[in-house]
Amino acid sequence: MSDTPTGSHLFTPIRLGNLALDNRIIIAPMCQYSAHEGTPGDWHFMHLGTLALSGAGMLIIEATAVEPIGRITAGDLGLYSDENERGLARVLHALRTHSPIKIGMQLAHAGRKASSREPWNGGAQVAPDAPGGWLACAPSALPHAAHEAPPAALDADGLRRIRTAFTDAARRAARLGIDGLEIHAAHGYLLHQFLSPLANRRSDAYGGSLENRMRFPLEVFEAVRDAFPADKPVWARISATDWVEDGWDIDGTVALSQALKARGCAAIHVSSGGVSPQQKIKLGPGYQVPYAARVKREVGLPTIAVGLITEAEQAEAIIAGGEADAVSLARGILYDPRWPWHAAAKLGAQVNAPRQYWRSQPRELKDLFANTHFGAR
Ligand SMILES: Cc1cc2nc3c(=O)[nH]c(=O)nc-3n(C[C@H](O)[C@H](O)[C@H](O)COP(=O)(O)O)c2cc1C
Questions:
Q1: By C-alpha distance, which of 179, 173, 174, 170 is closest to 15?
Q2: Burial class of 183 by CB neighbour count within 10 A (0 to 12, 13 to 18, 19+)
Q3: 33 flagged as catalytic
Q4: Whole-angstrom Cα distance, residue 60 to residue 309?
Q5: Which of 26, 27, 30 to mutate to test the pocket of ligand 1 (most atoms within 8 A of CB)?
Q6: What is 85-132 written as a DSSP string?
Q7: Is 295:253 a contact under the CB 8 Å cutoff?
Q8: Are 31 and 63 in contact (CB under 8 A)?
Q9: Cα–Cα distance list, 155 to 12, 138, 186, 203, 311 (Å)
Q10: Ligand 1 contact, 117 CB (< 6 A)
Q11: Could you tell me the end-to-end alpha-carbon distance of the chain, in angstroms, rounded to an integer?
C-alpha cells in the first residue's frame, strides 16, 4: 500500500531540493529546432503550451544553448542574448498565466555535435565552410564520425569562455524565474565528450584519468550552481553508458554522480548513449531504468528514469519498486500530451487540469481532476 490517499506512487508528490512537484511525471527536454537566432517563436507557445496543460509534475524546456556555436542546429533554442531572454520571458509568462506546472530548463553545449542540419533535413553535419555552418569546439580535435570535419580542441581560454557562458545563462534563467536547471552532460554533447575516453584524448588536467575527464563537467556544474539561486535545484542529465567497449560506463556514472552530489546536485537524470556512431544500444521498454536504479542505490540522490517508458502501469511499477524516484517521458508525451491525465485515470489518482477543460472529465471519473467546481444557470 502506498502512503498516498490515491494509492498511486507515480502521483505522490516529490521534492528535488526545495522544488516540490505534484507528481513524479516529468516531461523530458526535447529540442524543437524552431528558434530564430536562439529566440523562441510562435511554435514554442504552441508546443510548450500544449505540454504545460498535461498535468505532469514538471516540464523541462529543451536543450538551451549557452553560446551560439554550442547549438546543435541553427534552429536550437539559446539563452545567450537579451533577445533570447526577452523571447523566453514572453513564452514563460503565457505558461505561468495558465498552468501551475513547474518549469525546468536544460542548459546545453553541443561541442563537436554542433553545426548540424535539423533531423527533418537529414541531421548531417553542416561543414564549417558550408553556408550556415560553423567550426565546432570539443575536448579534442576528433570528429563525431570519421568522415566529418573535426572540431577545434578547446584551449584554456575556450574552457573559460564556456564556463562563463553557462554562468551567464544560469543568471538569465534565474531572472526568468525558471524553477530548476538541468545541466546536459549526456547524449554525446560537450560535457559528455569530456567524460568519454572515446571523445576526450587530452593530455592536460582535463583528460586521461576519470578524475581529469570529470573535471570540466564538474567545474561547469559548480559555476551554474553558484550562479543560480541557492533555494532552487540544479541537477544533471548523464549518459550512463556509451554502449561502446572502452567507452564511458556505469561505474564512471556512479563516480560522477557522487562527485555531483558532493557539490549540491539535486538529482540525476539517467539516460545513455550518443557519443559514438559505433554504439550498440540494447533497446526495449524501460531499457535505461536499471542504470537509474544503480545510481539511486549507490549514490542516494533522487533519480529520474527515462527511455521507452510509455505505460502508466510501467511508470507506476518503476516508482513503486524503488528503481527511480521519478520518470521522464519524451516521445510518449508528444504522442499523447494528456498522458498524465490518462495515467491518473488508470491508477485512480488525481491530476491538475485547466479549469477551461474541467467539463471534459469522463462521467465515471468524477474525481480525476483536482480542485474542480462547476456551476451553470
Ligand atoms: C523530439 C526529441 C527531441 C529531443 N531533444 C532532447 C534534448 O533537447 N535534450 C535531451 O537531453 N534529450 C533530448 N531528447 C531525448 C529525450 O529527452 C529522451 O531522453 C529520449 O527520447 C528517450 O525517452 P522516450 O523513450 O520517452 O522518448 C529528445 C528526444 C526527442 C524525441
A1: 179
A2: buried
A3: no
A4: 17
A5: 30
A6: HHHHHHHHHHHHHH---EEEEEEE--GGG-SB--GGGT-PBPPTTSTT
A7: yes
A8: yes
A9: 47, 10, 22, 12, 46
A10: no
A11: 42
306 in contact with ligand 1, CB cutoff 6 A: yes
Determine the average pLDDT of the residues in 345-364: 96
**Torsion angle of C-alpha atoms 157, 162, 163, 164, degrees rounded to 10:** 90
Grid cell locating 149? 570535419
306 Cα nearest atom in ligand 1: 23
Catalytic residue among 80, 189, 206, 291: 189
1 has pLDDT over 50: no
CA of 48 to the centre of ligand 1 (A): 15
CA of 157 to the centre of ligand 1 (A): 31
Q: What is the mean pLDDT of the chain?
A: 97
* pLDDT tens by residue, 15-59: 999 999 999 999 999 999 999 999 999 999 999 999 999 999 999
Q: Residue 232 and residue 363: Cα distance in Å, rounded?
A: 40
Give this prediction's pTM: 0.97
Quote the pLDDT of residue 374.
82
* Cα separation, 135 vs 121, whole angstroms: 20
Residue with cell 554504439: 279
Q: Is 240 in the pocket of ligand 1 (CB under 6 A)?
A: no
How far apart, in whole angstroms, are the C-alpha atoms of residue 27 and residue 49? 13
Please provide residue 234's backbone torsions phi and psi, each rounded to the nearest 5 degrees.
Answer: -125, 135
Mutation choice for ligand 1 from 26, 31, 34, CB with most ligand atoms inside 8 A: 31
Strands 14-16 and 19-21: antiparallel
